[in-house]
């Protein structure tokens, strides 16, 4: 069972004044008639999946609900963050919530603000990733770099595993000379921030490396408050979470 987790956070600073705090870029129609969020939902068509879980800032809840409805999702599961704590707590809350309602689902973590033109290649990558996920692995999707960009994180590949590679390291945004070395080596990919794994596998790793986040997020899910169909996170509990990707 595949459940997409769509992360809809954003501060609206990069494309100001079109994008702004109350209406960041993922809710805008920048390159198509549909918004970036709606294109993210539409990219899933043709895959066998359950309705996505959306994680967004509390003040964007009605925008997400309406845009999801326009994309054909009537009763969307929307988890509201009182403030951003980066992606690890957001994914953890969604993963625990998904596991409460389904037995060890496979989760596909997506950002709501990506532009992916080759949908067939995107879906093919998901299909290939499912083989790795079935073996208990956590999969991240790299993007073949086309230039020595310094605005992206990088992933260094190691040995071949089935249709993918093991990851030897994640690298934060490098300087220009280092980025040029990465491009030349052909061993590095841009970090897309997209992931696929079984909920249990991810939460087991979280228990191993960040048990505090797992503990706080488990308490968050236990105490989610339903508010007009939205799932509202308890601010005091969530505040204890480390802010980390």
**Helicity level, as a percent range?**
25-40%
Q: Mind summarizing the main beta sheet?
A: 10 strands, mixed
Strand percentage, roughly? 15-25%
Strand segment count: 10
Q: Output the number of helix runs.
A: 8
Shape: globular
Our measurement of the CA-to-CA distance between the termini, rounded to an integer number of angstroms, reads 25 Å
User: Order of SSEs, N→C?
Assistant: EHEHEHEHEEEHEHHEEH
Kindly provide the radius of gyration, computed on alpha-carbon positions and rounded to a whole number of angstroms: 18 Å
Unreliable residue stretches: none
Please provide a written account of the structure:
With 245 residues, the protein is of the alpha/beta class. Strands 1, 2, 3, 4, 5, 6, 7, 8, 9 and 10 form a ten-stranded mixed β-sheet that branches. Helices cover 35% and strands 24% of the residues. The relative contact order is 0.16. The protein has eight helices and ten strands. The radius of gyration is 18 Å and the shape is globular.
Q: Key terms for this structure?
A:
single chain, 245 residues, alpha/beta, 8 helices, 35% helix
Topology overview:
Layout: E1 2-7, H1 36-42, E2 53-57, H2 61-70, E3 77-81, H3 87-101, E4 106-111, H4 119-134, E5 139-143, E6 154-161, E7 164-171, H5 176-185, E8 188-198, H6 199-209, H7 211-222, E9 225-227, E10 230-232, H8 235-238
Parallel strand pairs: 1-2, 1-4, 2-3, 3-10
Antiparallel strand pairs: 4-8, 5-8, 6-7, 6-8, 9-10
Helix pairs in contact: 3-6, 3-7, 6-7
